[in-house]
Design brief:
Strand content: 25-35%
Order of helices and strands: EEHHEEEHEE
CATH superfamily: Nucleic acid-binding proteins
Distance between the termini: 63 Å
Structural class: alpha+beta
Number of helices: 3
Strand order of the largest sheet: 3-4-2-1-6-7-5
Helix content: 10-25%
CATH class: Mainly Beta
Largest sheet: 7 strands, mixed
Shape: globular
Length: 201
């Protein structure tokens, strides 16, 4: 089984609580992007597995097919992070510069592990969503992914299945979307003068 462990990497655009479709009418999936330094052993393992499955599928044509795949970003799940640009700001996404990004998805809910390494029961929706909700864009995680070969009527490519994720440590939230501290905004409340007290009916 060609799974790859990505230890201590940052996660971006996680959709782990509910499946999400990236295109209108597309198939909803659970998905995430993992930000991996080019020197990370997990990246070396990932590319080694890509080579293995490509060779197994295309045999003596593997090198030629991989040249086609590597020349077209739409045909692969991995990319140079500096090529991923926010279409609104035209800037490279936070944390992507100088790193490799690996996009993974799954039609089924990925396995989620708590901080003790215990697998969360996917049938316990409340607990699953609570644990998955701890994982936000910018935090550090351990993840398991599985590269696979696409070879069908839609073309050829290297895709990636999202197998499992575990929250590891906090990190700076991407895009400044962390919940702001509004301490001091609200004071003590009091009923306006002249109004009767609230009564249960």
């Amino acid at each position: 089984m060609s799974i790859v462990v990505l230890s201590n990497v940052r996660i971006s655009f996680p959709h782990l609580k509910e499946p999400q479709s990236s295109t209108q009418g597309g198939t909803p999936t659970y998905n995430a992007v993992f930000i991996v330094p080019p020197t990370h052993t997990g990246y070396a393992d990932f590319m080694k597995q890509v080579g293995v499955i490509a060779q197994d599928k295309w045999k003596e044509k593997a090198a030629d097919v991989m040249n086609i795949i590597n020349a077209d970003a739409k045909k692969r799940c991995y990319a140079d992070g500096s090529t991923k640009v926010n279409q609104k700001t035209f800037k490279v996404y936070d944390g992507y510069e100088g790193n490799i990004v690996i996009s993974a998805n799954n039609k089924n809910a990925p396995q989620i592990f708590d901080e003790k390494g215990v697998k969360v029961d996917p049938n316990n929706s409340m607990t699953y969503k609570s644990e998955a909700g701890k994982i936000y864009g910018g935090c550090y995680v351990n993840a398991v992914v599985k590269p696979w070969v696409q070879a069908n009527t839609h073309g050829v490519g290297i895709r990636c299945e999202l197998v499992a994720v575990q929250f590891l440590a906090d990190g700076e939230s991407f895009g400044g979307d962390a919940t702001p501290d509004v301490s001091g905004v609200f004071g003590a409340t009091a009923a306006p003068a002249g109004l009767p007290p609230f009564m249960m009916t």
